[in-house]
From TrEMBL, chain A:
GO terms for biological process: phosphorelay signal transduction system. SUPFAM superfamilies: CheY-like (SSF52172). Keywords: Phosphoprotein. Transmembrane segments: none annotated. InterPro entries: CheY-like_superfamily, Sig_transdc_resp-reg_receiver, TCS_response_regulator. Residues 7-133 form the Response regulatory domain. The keyword Phosphoprotein applies. The keyword Phosphoprotein applies. The modification 4-aspartylphosphate is found at residue 66. It comes from Spongiivirga citrea. This is Response regulator. It comes from the Bacteria.
TrEMBL record, chain B:
This is histidine kinase. GO terms for molecular function: protein histidine kinase activity. It comes from the Bacteria. Residues 161-370 form the Histidine kinase domain. It comes from Spongiivirga citrea. Keywords: Kinase, Phosphoprotein, Transferase. Its EC number is 2.7.13.3.
């Protein structure tokens, strides 16, 4: 397997899910560092700040974005997300929604690499990190 | 003129055209009329009298012709007659008419110009048929289609929400079992157990919410009773006394404009409880919550307005989602995103509506029309 991704990022308000994903990523050594944001706004703030400081090495290579979140949901995040924050990175929308209109809508964003339906399979997770590193 | 050929065997007898016309008109409830535009006179046949419930001694007149149409359709009828009379334009329409006894009914009306040998228009004539039965069925059908369509879309939406929320819990459970298999130390495995507790709690909550939503549909068939706003208010305030005291909230009521309505009592409690709790919960950080609740009637409609001085909400950003299920907008830990969804559904299931107006940092106003 390739060397692990440097920075992974989870944007999700479900604490249990975030806990489990972090444990999994740590256990499988998929990423050296993991950023966690509980809603879109927190993530946008981080990305904007990082870009302003020109600290591109602090930007993640893999982003998992949830759709239903308070303050700023996944859709609003995608509207505001500056693709410069993610040059050469992969952004996955990860949601429990199996509503086809959600899936179509997500895939229409050029910044979205793919749509993953929860639960995230361990093999899928490994593949995602492998293709990003 | 062509001579009518008799095809009746035996005794040759001319077919009585008038018999057929009369019987057909009776059978189909079709009245006919004629307006002589030169002499300015109007004529009706007897079925027209019958349909319009006119006294037999009534003499039809051109001037009073429009009075046989329902008020909201008189301009329309006038235009049809005028176009037929002045421009020779035929019409075949569905229009609402009114009998002498004041009963309104839908009719199919056909009108055509009458020409003389020199192709000059000398009158207007037509027939009309009472199609009220059919029309009422059409309206009823249209109504049910609309109800079913909106129910259907609500159900579909609901199904997606249910599936989404149950899936997020079950997918967490699945992740936990995967991890339990892979983790080695007892400590790590123990930590997974605490996650299971979290999932179980959320699952429970989700199912509670689903129960609440599902009962809206069955409850809307519940009997309405006279509900006094003051009574409901006292009941609600007692149940949230703790929150009100903690936040030092002041609630000012004014039920003088409308003190009671016919409603499902449980809904009124739930609606008031949700709106008042929200008003206090989402208070402005810099001031004590002050909530005004007022009822009144306007244009024969019953209103309840709940106005607070809370933190407000950015409607340009969240306007379409504020009544959605599981939509939360603030950092409050106890925000669950169910209250307003249920409130809206309860109000709508009884044929009412709810609207919101809000300014960030100033407050929020909910207006309900029952």
């Amino acid at each position: 397997m390739n060397s692990p991704v440097k920075i992974g990022c989870i944007i999700d308000d479900d604490n249990t899910y975030v806990n489990l994903m972090s444990t999994l990523i740590k256990m499988k050594k998929l990423s050296e560092k993991l950023l966690v944001f509980n809603n879109g706004q927190e993530a946008i703030d981080y990305f904007e700040d990082t870009l302003q400081r020109g600290a591109k090495d602090e930007l993640p290579q893999v982003i998992f974005l949830d759709l239903n979140m308070p303050i700023m949901n996944g859709w609003q995040f995608l509207e505001q997300f500056d693709s410069e924050s993610c040059s050469g990175c992969s952004l996955y929308v990860v949601s429990s929604s199996i509503n086809p209109s959600d899936i179509d809508r997500a895939k229409r964003y050029p910044t979205v690499t793919d749509y993953i339906t929860k639960p995230m399979e361990i093999t899928t997770l490994e593949e995602v990190f492998a293709s990003a590193s | 003129m062509k001579k009518e050929a008799s095809n009746t065997p035996g005794k040759a007898e001319p077919i009585d055209k008038f018999f057929y016309l009369k019987e057909t008109a009776e059978l189909t409830k079709t009245g006919s009329w004629y307006i002589d535009t030169q002499k300015f006179e109007a004529f009706w046949n007897n079925i027209t009298y019958e349909i319009l419930e006119a006294p037999l001694d009534f003499i039809p007149a051109v001037e009073s012709g429009l009075s046989h149409y329902a008020e909201e359709h008189r301009d329309y009828a006038a235009k049809l007659f005028f176009d037929c009379y002045k421009k020779g334009k035929e019409f075949d329409v569905e229009i609402k008419m009114v009998t002498f006894k004041g009963t309104e009914f839908w009719a199919r009306a056909i009108g055509k110009p009458v020409l003389n040998g020199d192709n000059e228009q000398i009158g207007v004539q037509g027939v009309f048929q009472n199609i009220d039965d059919v029309k009422q069925k059409e309206f009823a059908l249209q109504n049910s289609v609309e109800t079913i369509t909106s129910q259907n879309s609500r159900l579909l939406n609901f199904a997606y929400i249910v599936s989404h929320n149950l899936r997020s819990q079950t997918s967490n459970l699945q992740l936990i079992t995967h991890l339990l298999d892979s983790l080695n130390t007892v400590e790590e495995k123990m930590e997974m157990l605490s996650n299971i507790k979290g999932v179980s709690d959320s699952l429970n909550k989700t199912i509670e919410h689903l129960n609440e939503v599902a009962t809206i549909q069955t409850n809307s068939k519940q009997e309405k009773r006279v509900v006094r706003f003051e009574d409901t208010y006292l009941l609600v305030v007692t149940s949230i006394q703790q929150i009100i005291a903690n936040q030092k909230a002041e609630i000012i009521t004014d039920f003088s404009g409308l003190d009671s309505i016919n409603y499902v009592p449980a809904y009124m409690e739930s609606i008031m409880l949700n709106l008042l709790t929200n008003a206090v919960k989402y208070k402005h950080p810099d001031r004590k919550p002050e909530v005004h609740i007022k009822t009144f009637t306007q244009n024969e409609q019953s209103f309840m307005v709940v106005k607070d001085n809370g933190m407000g909400i950015d409607l340009s950003r969240y306007g379409d989602q504020i009544f959605g299920m599981y939509k939360t907008f603030h950092y409050n830990d106890d925000a669950e995103g169910v209250g307003l969804f249920i409130t809206k559904n309860q109000i709508e299931s009884l044929g009412g509506s709810i609207a919101v107006d809000s300014t960030v940092d100033e407050g929020t106003t909910f207006t309900i029309i029952f």
